[in-house]
Amino acid sequence: MVGNGQRIMIKGTRDGLTLQLDDQCSFETLLRELREKLSMSGITEEQPMIRVNIQLGKRYLDEDKKEELSAVVREKQKLVVDSIESEVLTKQEALNWKENTEITPVARTIRSGQLVEVKGDLLLIGDVNPGGQVKATGNVFIMGSLRGIAHAGFEGDQSAVIAASYMQPSQLRIADQLSRSPDYDSEGVYMECGFIDDQLEKIRIDRLQEVVKKRPDLVSFERRMING
Fold first, then answer.
1. 74 three-state secondary structure
2. pLDDT, tens digit, 9 for 90 and up, residues 114-132
3. Contacts of range 134-141, beta carbons closer than 8 Å, 24 or more positions apart
4. Across residues 14-29, what is the average pLDDT?
5. How far apart are CA 27 and CA 62, in angstroms?
6. Which pTM value belongs to this model?
7. Which of 109, 172, 208, 228 lies at a 20 to 30 A Cα distance from 150?
């Protein structure tokens, strides 16, 4: 809810304008006051196109109402709606979020020619043999040897990681990045983890303890294991 009795707040950012809209008043009142507010904004024809981010707070709008809201903004010829954000999740969005944050445990050996593909994180208790493949939209955790192919974040999540007790993959993939071998030869059995190094923009392999420092969100994996 927009405070101080204001139903609409306009903030300038380096990327354009942010409109924070009250989520308690009626939609019709909001549209009327938005027109009035924009008409006094001082935007001139000499200015370049301005991108607008609309924040709805806890208000939910269907696609027709979003288009109606965007049309009011577009009445100012120099304004273009870049995004409309709401804190309210639709049922489908909530289901998608749940699906993509769940952990799927699998206890088996993935042999040559076999593929295991899951939504969310994969926890494999077993080995991935040469020619075997595992894929997840989230992270891949292997409590065993990885000698085949592992693909984490296959829908585009570049923050995903691949961890294995013994890392000797024929191929690692994270999002659209690919690595055919570890950055160094590893001996013994200990937790190693593949991740995208943001500075090098390629897949690196390091000890899991070191990767946790770079991916602090991985602790959510531990919380979900405890609470699941």
1. helix
2. 999 999 999 999 999 999 9
3. 134/110, 136/104, 136/160, 137/100, 138/100, 138/101, 139/163, 139/218, 139/221, 141/221
4. 88
5. 12
6. 0.55
7. 228
- The whole-angstrom separation of Cα 81 and Cα 15 is 12
CB 172 within 8 A of CB 178: yes
Positions of CATH 3.30.750 in the chain: 8-85
Task: Give pLDDT tens digits for 171-191.
Answer: 999 999 998 655 445 454 456
Contact between residue 48 and residue 83 where contact means Cβ atoms under 8 Å apart: no
* CATH number of the domain located at residue range(s) 99-227 in this protein: 2.160.20.70
Whole-number percent of the chain with pLDDT over 70: 81
Euclidean distance between CA atoms 218 and 40, whole angstroms = 47
